[in-house]
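HOLO CASE FILE
Compound: zinc ion
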Amino acid sequence: MPTWITVAEGVHQRRGGPFDLSVVVVEGADGLLVVDAGGDPSEGAEILADIRSRFDRPVLGLVNTHAHFDHTFGNQAFRSGVPDVAIHGHALIARHFERYEGPRVAAWRLDPSREPGRAWADVELVPPTHPIDAPVDLDLGGRAVRLLPQPPAHSDTDVVLFVPDVRVWVLGDLVEESGPPMYGSGSYPLTWPDVLEALAADMRDGDLVMPGHGAVVDRAFVARQAGVLRVIADRIAGAHAQGLPADEALAAHADWPLPPEGLTGAVERAYLALDGEPLEQGGTRDA
Ligand SMILES: [Zn+2]
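Model generated. Tokens follow.
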């Protein structure tokens, strides 16, 4: 069963489901803003029903922290369950769907054994109704929430949500607590550490930070994860500069700060960037 935690006044985190996804609810006088929608239509519907059973106020909108399936494939349940729902997300989500999530669903439909356990037969990729490419302030009724689209990092579509009155940050998969950070589709391993360092610089001690998966963390955790991603970026860039082929880059070090089996996608994506390729292929990890 999913668990709910009130992390600050009127800000709640739901954890659970097949991906231990953080779903965040921000309350304002006019209604609720929900962050992230689950990995298939039925998880989206279950999240929406759970929220409606717990909160009296109407759902005003949904935010996608980024395009990956476990955060967006429930969008259609919000679209059909909430009349005129505003779906906020990065302007490049539609492009990301075309490049990565759409082909992945098409491949799964041809051969569901590629990814057992998915329930994507009826999934429709629903991009944001309110795409953003610059910071936006939303008014939930007496409460402002800021949406901050990020440069390429965990994905090409990361958006950070900040609730100024309680100093809560929602970072999506820019940080992960319950597992290692994932170099998924559309990731930018070389610039991800820059993005986290900049966010950590904007945070204060005592700020609360919600990861895409896992427990609430703080500024120090964000700074540490930035450091880990920096080591990985520097080593991959170093291997590339030495002329090592991609499949030898990981063997060049015995002491990676994350499990090396999770870094294949990082090498692929970083080498594509360093070779100046359009980053449309690679990035084979889950989310
Ligand atoms: Zn992700």
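CASE NOTES: Confidence is low (pLDDT under 50) at residues 280-287. DSSP finds eight helices and twelve strands in the chain.
CLOSED: yes
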